[in-house]
Each structure stands twice: as structure tokens, then as C-alpha cells.
Amino acid sequence: MELFYRYQDLAPQLVPLDYTSCPDVKVPYELIGTMPELKDNPFRLRIAQVFSEDGDGHMTLNNFLDMFSVMSEMAPRDLKAYYAFKIYDFNNDDYICMWDLEQTVTKLTRGELSAEEVSLVCEKVLDEADGDHDGRLSLEDFQNMILRAPDFLSTFHIRI
Amino acid sequence: MSHRPQGLGEEGDRSGRRPSRKPAPKAEGVTGRCGGPAGQEWAKGSPRPDSPQRKQVEHKRHREELGKQKRSTARRTREGRKKKNGKASLKEQRASPKKEKEVPKKEMWKQLKKRRSPSLASSASAGESLSEEELARILEQVEEKKKLITHMRNKPWPMAKKLTELREAQEFVEKYEGALGKGKGKRLYAYRMLMTKKWIKFKRDFDNFKTQCIPWEMKIKDIESHFGSSVASYFIFLRWMYGVNLVLFGLIFGLVIIPEVLMGMPYGSIPRKTVPRAEEERAMDFSVLWDFEGYIKYSALFYGYYNDQRTIGWLRYRLPMAYFMVGVSVFGYSLMIVIRSMASNTQGGTSEGEGDNFTFSFKMFTSWDYLIGNSETADNKYVSITTSFKESIVDEQESNKEENIHLTRFLRVLANFLIICCLCGSGYLIYFVVKRSQEFSKMQNVSWYERNEVEIVMSLLGMFCPPLFETIAALENYHPRIGLKWQLGRIFALFLGNLYTFLLALMDDVHLKLSNEEKIKNITHWTLFNYYNSSGWNESVPRPPLHPADVPRGSCWETAVGIEFVRLTVSDMLVTYITILVGDFLRACFVRFMNYCWCWDLEAGFPSYAEFDISGNVLGLIFNQGMIWMGSFYAPGLVGINVLRLLTSMYFQCWAVMSSNVPHERVFKASRSNNFYMGLLLLVLFLSLLPVAYTIMSLPPSFDCGPFSGKNRMYDVIQETVENDFPTFLGKIFAFIANPGLIIPAILLMFLAIYYLNSVSKTLSRANAQLRKKIQALREVEKSHKSVKGRATARDSEDTAKGSSKNATKAGTMPHSASQSQTLGKKAQGPGTSSSASGTMLPASSHLPISRPAGIRPDPGHAGPQTHPGRSASRKSAQRPPH
């Protein structure tokens, strides 16, 4: 319920109160991204894209609910790991490759690291987590790694 | 996926208006139609081969499969309760009376249905009503469904699918749960569920509250994000110290000072609580008070104020006993807390060791806190992430650097030699100066310099030696973290000299006072005697007793020691603050504002901004704490002063760091377990325990002040209490325990225990290391495996993998889409190879995960399909140890 009102608040002109009648309303990303929970997140675009149906960041209420159920602290870590993988997989090829890693680092540091440092970090990450040495992280590699992270669960959630 | 629009509609239904139960008749109708899923799930829920109903179950399942398509229409019956299970159970509870009415009808329906279909009828032939067995089975089923409901979240399905599934399951549970429990039990059950939910929520809120209650967390996080974790570690240490002091303060204040103030004799009643006549007129002057003389000296803040009455007040509070016990327990508590935090730090350190493999990955993927919803915090977070990346890069580069080991080694030896020379020189200098000062103290009319020579030399050493050490340490070229430790150790050695001179001077003073004491005692007696005897002319009227201020009294060395410590603490505090103010703040102001009109760049050039001096600050804190520990026995108020000091310095230093310091050039990560600080603290605690224990054990207390006056030794108070207040047999037991014949074996036993535990822990850590090595080896094997396989199958499976994984993600049902794609790829690729044969064969040999790769490597081209099962098996076995 609460979520629904939040959703509606985002775009009062788009979402009618009686949601039953027109279920296919979408809220554009520009509005999703301004939620206080998301507006400072460097990955907000990715989050919206992952949870939206066709990857453009526009969300229906169902997508919206999905997002917050995954991000809630009750969601299990396997599920979270799965979606985290999708979020970090920038080009949607089901592998986290070098380019994805560079994107991640750049977003995390707002581009304050030099190019060599970024590439060094990316190489180290691949070196550590890449189980099959194919130069990219598969979902398995990622899960293997992330499930051992001590504070993955505590950081990967949004409280609403 | 075909239910999606419908699900959406229901979603709207759910959220659009407040969920309300549908009228009973409709629900009933649904039940009739929906008997099906129940049967199906039931069959799934009890797949026991030994059950006699298995065959019928098969029948039923078949039948239900047929009816499944129809059922989809029946799904939109109940309102969806997505995740508000708490609400749901509440509603359930509310609705339970209604449902109880429904139950018989449902049962009827079921019975009818069973009679209609032959297979069901036979299954129900055991009895007209539900048999025990059936009940049990339904119960199982309900559990199953409930499990599904609770695990619904775990599945990466889109919301619509979840909703339909959930609705189905919930409907089922609701329907049959009523059949199982009696009305009362059910309500109880619902109530209990509600309570558990509430409890969990409460616990979570409480945890949040607790984290919010950690003082200065935001400040420290702020500093950490700007200056790195090493500077923050100082502040964390400061905070910890504040907590410890607060406890000590509570102990001393609650058990000694407050009882004395409330129940003890008031000020001015006896000589020890009165300012002597000679000092009286100046006792309120600020300059006197500033030296902690005058009224402050004769207050409950110091040892001398306390009376030696065995019990005080109407509570018969045994103050001397309490004083002694508090003094002992201050040390006991400090020792315990330091050792405990050291132990917990080491524990944290060992569990952390596993994560070393993934430093960068963790940093990259888990460092962003998705909770951050505040742009300022977000800014800090960006900065701190960048800093932490830099820290890790520095670490990495350090570990990679391997140049000219001989030169480094030579330089390090040289540096250590130089520093040892420095330390020896300064030690000798101190020794020399102290000797001289002892000579000076015997002489008359010494000059100002000669009187203060020790202090001047000490502060000069303290000022010049640390930078000197730092310069020498630059030779060594250590990693900054190790460098910091060396620096700390060296300055520590220097400070020990400081402490030693201080204590030596103090001891001399005490001995001097003790030797004078006998004389003063006689004088006092004589005065009193004279006073009373001289009144001989009128013996019937006793003269008023001598005014307490006029009684001559001893020097009370305990109070003198206490005052010395208090003075030292306060002056130390002031010096620290002034140094910060002048050295950091004014310098920063100067650099900042004069930079516009100066001939060179002040910010980048010579003065620049100050860096935060971690080693100096930590050591200052530790030594200050040593002073507190030593002085708190003689000046109970000292801990209160220290609490204030720590509080102010927390705010003041936080402000100073943020306003006028710059981060270190090489930002480095503090070791998470700051056991090094703790080790130093423990050492200081031990060193400060020694003099106090010495004075308690072997010096006689002053005869006319303090709670132990009149006794031969301070610890006699225990003996006295045991003798007078405990039954006699306890006294005997104490005497027996104190027997050396018992103490020595006890100590021996303790040593043995320590030895045993030590060896056990060593064995365990060795086993741990071996296991880790094994895991590492397995991972290596796995890697080589995968790389072999990857090369072989990369080109073959690329297209199929893409296709299948796309399918998988579209369906959104498979969390292991990658693994699925691999298996798909395998199937598509190798129908001709012996994939099926190897599939059956490999599980048998999967207990030899290490022996596999040897067999596989020779034929990499052929290995594609074959390695899959073996690899997965080996991964399973590799993953087992950590779990």
C-alpha cells in the first residue's frame, strides 16, 4: 500500500487513484530517478533499467514493487546477488566484462581515479573473481564472490 | 507469463481499494472448483514411495493436469496479499470466525467430490470423515504451501507471476488450515504468528536504534571519508576510551564520592576536612584553586578528605572498604576490558582473513551503500570510496615492489641503530638530569632554570625526538602502516623515560613526607595534649574542642600524589589544546589567507597545512590514560576530570581535523583490528598498576587523612572487614586461601592452563591454515579446469548460450541462467559424444575431484562435454569446506 502511494506520488498526473482500470501505466525514468531513495545512487539508471520490463527505465507498478521487494532487507541473498549481477552488467550480455567494470569504478569514484588506476583496479577484480579465466565474470563467478562479501547484505538494500 | 495482464488487474484491485474479503458464497464456489490444486500439491508434498496411496496420487495428478487450464480463471478470487504477511495474519485472525463457519461447508464439498470421483472415493474409503492420516497429509501440504509463500521472495520472478503463485498458495492454505486446527488453536496460532512478526520488527527497530545511539558515528564516518581509516582509527580509539572512562567514572562516583557527600561528615567537622588556619584566607583565590590547593584540596575529590570511620550514615555504608574495593576494581575492570577487546579484535581478524582473496571485488561491488539518501552523505561516500580504492592500490603496489632488497635492509638496520642511539642518549640525559635535580633539591637558593631543569629537558626531548625519528624512519621505506607502528613504538620508549622520571621524583617526595610524618604525629599529639591539659583551671566544664582548622596535621602524601596527577592531566590537556589551536588552526588560517599576498605558494610550499599526527595523538591518549589509572586511587575526582577532557577533546579535535588539517599524502588503511593500540594500552596499564600496587602494599598510609588512616597498611581494611563483619568460619577460609602453600600451586595451575590453551590454539590455527591452503588448491584446479573447458567450448556454445540465456532471462525464472545455458550448450553440441555415458559415470568418480583434471587435460578438444559434470562436482566439493 505504502509503496503504491509512493509510486503514485511520483507521477500524480499519470497514475490514477483507481489503478484497476488502466494497469499499464508507466512512470518514466526521469521521475523514478528523483525518488529520494534513489537520487544519490550512482547506479539508479541501472536499477531502473534492470527492473523495468523492456530495459528503458520506465516502470509499471509491478516493476516498482519488484524493485523494492528485491531491495528490501528481507529478500534473500541469492536473489539479491542475482539482481546485483544484473545491475552491474551494464551491457546486458550476461557477463560482467572489462567495460562493465570500468563503468562501475568510474561511477563509484565519480571519475576521480586516473585511467591507469581504473584499469589496474579492473584487472585486479578480474584476477580475483574470474573463476574460468575468460576475461569476464559470469553470474556464477559473481555469486561465488559476492556471497562471501561480509557487508553485501547490509549495503545492498533500500529502506523505504 | 500468460497471466500477466490478469495479475496486473488484480494488483490494481489489491491496491486500488482496501483489501476486503469476498463474500463467503463466492469463496465457497471457488473452493469447489479449486479442489484441484490442492490435490496436485498434495501429491507433490508427499512423494513417499512407501505410501499406499501413491497410485491414487498419480491418478489424481493426471486428472489435475487436465483441469489446470480451467483453474487459471479461478485464480482471481482472493485479494492478493503480497508481502504484508503481518497484515495478512491480522486479517486472518479477524476473519477467523467467519471462516470457521465456512469450514464445514468446505468439508462437505470435499466429501462430495471424493465420492463423485472413483479414485478419490477409494482414497477416502478409510472413513466417512477425514482420517488421521489424511489430516496429517493435508497438514504437510499446508506446510509446503506456506513454505512456498515464505520463499516466494527468493525467486527472481516478476511480480505478476509471483502474485498468481502466491494467491494460489495462500488460497490453499487458507482453505485447509481451517480444517486442521480447532477454532481456538487457530486463533492462538495466528496470534503467535503476529507476535513473532511484531517481535522481529521490534528487534530490527531496536538494532537501528542501537546503531543510532553510537555516539559520534556520523562525525567519525565523516572524518574517515575525508582522511582515511587511519585517522578515523584514532577517533574510534578515543571514543572507546571515553566509554571505558565513563564506566570507571560511574563506579567511582557512585560508590565512593556520592556516599561520602551524602552520608559522610560535612565539611569542617574534623581536621582533615577543613582548610588549615594558615591557608584559610587565600584558600578561595583563583591562583590557589588553579593549583588544586585550598578548598579543592580539602574536598571529596581527593583521598585525604575521606574519614576512617568504619561505617557512615544510617545505611552503615562501609566507606573505607568500598574505597579500597573500588580502587581495585578500577584496575580489574580496565584489565578485563582491554584484554577482552583485544581478544575480540583478534577474532574479527581471523574471520576477516578469508576475504583477502576478493579485496578489490568487494570494494567494487559492495562498497556503495544503497541506503544513502542524502546528497551530502553521498558526496562523502564517493570520496571515501575513492580513498579506499587508493588505499588498496597503495597496498597492492607495496606488495608488488621488490627492488633492491639489500639496500633496504641495510638502511633499515642503520635506521634502527640510529634510533637506538637516540633513545639511549635521551635515556642517559634524563637519568643525568634527574640525578642533578636531586642534588639541587638539597641545595638552597637554586635558580629558576635549575629548579625546572627536568621539565625543560623532558619537553625539549618530547618536541625534537619524534620528528627526528620520523626523519630517520624515512630511510627505512616501510609501508606507511608498518611505519606508523615503528614510530609509535619508538616514541613510546621515549615517553617511558618521561614516566620514569616523573614517578621517581614522586617517590622521593613520598619518602620524604613519610619520614617527616613521625615528627608531625608527635607534634599533633603534643598540641592536643597541651591544649586539653592547659585547661586545668576549670575541669568541671570541658573546654570546647579545638577548632579543626587549628589542629596541626601531617602532609598527607596521598593527597599530594593525587594533586600531582590532576595537575599533570590538566596541564597536558591545555598543552594539547593550545598546540592544536596554534600549530594547526592558526597555521591553517595563516596559510589560507596570507597565500594571496606572499612571494611563494604557501599551500604547496613550506608551511602548508598540518597533517593529523596520529602517532603523537594516540600516545598522548594512552599515556594520559596511564596517569588516570595511577592517580584515580589518590584522587577519585580525577576520572571525572578525564571524562570531561575526553569529551571536549573529541569535539575539539574533530573540529580541528576537519577545519585545518589535510589528509596524508599517502592515504593508507589502518589495520582493522587496532590491537597495536590496545597492546600499548595494556602495557601502560600494567606499568601504572605497579606503582599503585607498591604503595598499597608496602607504604604505610598517612596517620591523619584518608580512609585508611590509623592502619598499618592499606589492605588491612579487608582483614578488618573479614574479621568484624563476616562469620568466623569465613575468616578462617580467607586465612586459608591466603596461605602461600595454596597460592603457589594455583599460579602453577594457571600457567599450565595457559600453556595448554596456547598449544590448542596453535594447533587449531595450523589446521585452519591447512584447510585454507586446500581450498586455494581446489580453486586453482577449478580455474585450470575451466580455462581448458572454456577454450574448447567457447566457440561452440557461444551462439547457443546466447540464445538460451536470453530465453532464461526472458522467462525470468532461472537464477542460474548461465549454468542452464551451459547445459543447453552441452546438449546441443554433443549428441554424438559419450555425454550420457560420462554423465552416469562421473558422479561415481566425483569424489576424486583433484584426480579429474589429469585425465582430462590430454584431450582438450574432446573434453567439452565431459568436463561439465566433473567440474560441477568438484566445485561442489570445493564449496563445501567454507560452509
UniProtKB/TrEMBL annotation, chain A:
<dbReference type="InterPro" id="IPR018247">
    <property type="entry name" value="EF_Hand_1_Ca_BS"/>
</dbReference>
<keyword id="KW-0479">Metal-binding</keyword>
<dbReference type="GO" id="GO:0005509">
    <property type="term" value="F:calcium ion binding"/>
</dbReference>
<dbReference type="Pfam" id="PF13499">
    <property type="entry name" value="EF-hand_7"/>
</dbReference>
<dbReference type="InterPro" id="IPR002048">
    <property type="entry name" value="EF_hand_dom"/>
</dbReference>
<keyword id="KW-0106">Calcium</keyword>
<dbReference type="GO" id="GO:0007229">
    <property type="term" value="P:integrin-mediated signaling pathway"/>
</dbReference>
<dbReference type="InterPro" id="IPR011992">
    <property type="entry name" value="EF-hand-dom_pair"/>
</dbReference>
<keyword id="KW-0460">Magnesium</keyword>
<protein>
    <submittedName>
        <fullName>Calcium and integrin binding family member 3</fullName>
    </submittedName>
</protein>
<keyword id="KW-0677">Repeat</keyword>
<dbReference type="GO" id="GO:0055074">
    <property type="term" value="P:calcium ion homeostasis"/>
</dbReference>
<dbReference type="InterPro" id="IPR051433">
    <property type="entry name" value="CIBP"/>
</dbReference>
<dbReference type="GO" id="GO:0000287">
    <property type="term" value="F:magnesium ion binding"/>
</dbReference>
<feature type="domain" description="EF-hand">
    <location>
        <begin position="117"/>
        <end position="152"/>
    </location>
</feature>
<keyword id="KW-0401">Integrin</keyword>
UniProtKB/TrEMBL annotation, chain B:
<dbReference type="GO" id="GO:0008381">
    <property type="term" value="F:mechanosensitive monoatomic ion channel activity"/>
</dbReference>
<feature type="compositionally biased region" description="Basic residues">
    <location>
        <begin position="873"/>
        <end position="883"/>
    </location>
</feature>
<dbReference type="Pfam" id="PF07810">
    <property type="entry name" value="TMC"/>
</dbReference>
<dbReference type="GO" id="GO:0005245">
    <property type="term" value="F:voltage-gated calcium channel activity"/>
</dbReference>
<keyword id="KW-0812">Transmembrane</keyword>
<feature type="compositionally biased region" description="Basic and acidic residues">
    <location>
        <begin position="89"/>
        <end position="110"/>
    </location>
</feature>
<feature type="transmembrane region" description="Helical">
    <location>
        <begin position="487"/>
        <end position="506"/>
    </location>
</feature>
<feature type="transmembrane region" description="Helical">
    <location>
        <begin position="413"/>
        <end position="434"/>
    </location>
</feature>
<feature type="compositionally biased region" description="Basic residues">
    <location>
        <begin position="69"/>
        <end position="86"/>
    </location>
</feature>
<feature type="region of interest" description="Disordered">
    <location>
        <begin position="1"/>
        <end position="128"/>
    </location>
</feature>
<feature type="compositionally biased region" description="Low complexity">
    <location>
        <begin position="119"/>
        <end position="128"/>
    </location>
</feature>
<feature type="domain" description="TMC">
    <location>
        <begin position="556"/>
        <end position="671"/>
    </location>
</feature>
<comment type="similarity">
    <text>Belongs to the TMC family.</text>
</comment>
<dbReference type="GO" id="GO:0005886">
    <property type="term" value="C:plasma membrane"/>
</dbReference>
<feature type="transmembrane region" description="Helical">
    <location>
        <begin position="322"/>
        <end position="343"/>
    </location>
</feature>
<feature type="compositionally biased region" description="Polar residues">
    <location>
        <begin position="802"/>
        <end position="824"/>
    </location>
</feature>
<feature type="transmembrane region" description="Helical">
    <location>
        <begin position="676"/>
        <end position="697"/>
    </location>
</feature>
<feature type="transmembrane region" description="Helical">
    <location>
        <begin position="733"/>
        <end position="757"/>
    </location>
</feature>
<dbReference type="GO" id="GO:0050910">
    <property type="term" value="P:detection of mechanical stimulus involved in sensory perception of sound"/>
</dbReference>
<keyword id="KW-0472">Membrane</keyword>
<dbReference type="GO" id="GO:0060005">
    <property type="term" value="P:vestibular reflex"/>
</dbReference>
<dbReference type="InterPro" id="IPR038900">
    <property type="entry name" value="TMC"/>
</dbReference>
